[in-house]
Amino acid sequence: MATALAKRGHDVRALTDEPALEGLDDEDVLRLAVEQDRILVTYDVKDFPPLLRAWAEAGRGHAGCVVVHGLDHREFGRLLRGLDCLFTARPAQEEWRNLAVFLSRAGTG
Questions:
Q1: How many CB atoms lie within 10 A of CB 102?
Q2: Can you tell me the mean pLDDT for 6-21?
Q3: How far apart are CA 81 and CA 5, in angstroms?
Q4: Which of 43, 44, 40 has its CA nearest to residue 14?
């Protein structure tokens, strides 16, 4: 996915491509995204929404988050089109500050 998004002009980094980052807990992943001013894309619909809520309640910001729900890795084309659409609709990083979006078969919400 990261390679395909990069070919479309998006600056991406995939944790799955970096063995040194394997095993980071969710909060550390979110912290790393904040430090690098990156929008986080995750399939972890169970843990990330509560984590984002806790950060908001604590006054902590993030660079944006897309939570993929109801799509799996085999739906590569649909996922790629959805992410590309989201990033094209909000091309400026500032538009993503503290924004959490769900990406699903039905669209975004």
A1: 16
A2: 84
A3: 10
A4: 40
Q: How far is CA 86 from CA 13, 22, 41, 53, 90, in A?
A: 17, 27, 11, 21, 6
pLDDT single digits (tens) 53-105? 999 999 999 999 999 998 877 788 889 889 989 998 999 999 999 999 999 87
Check: pTM over 0.85? Answer yes or no: yes
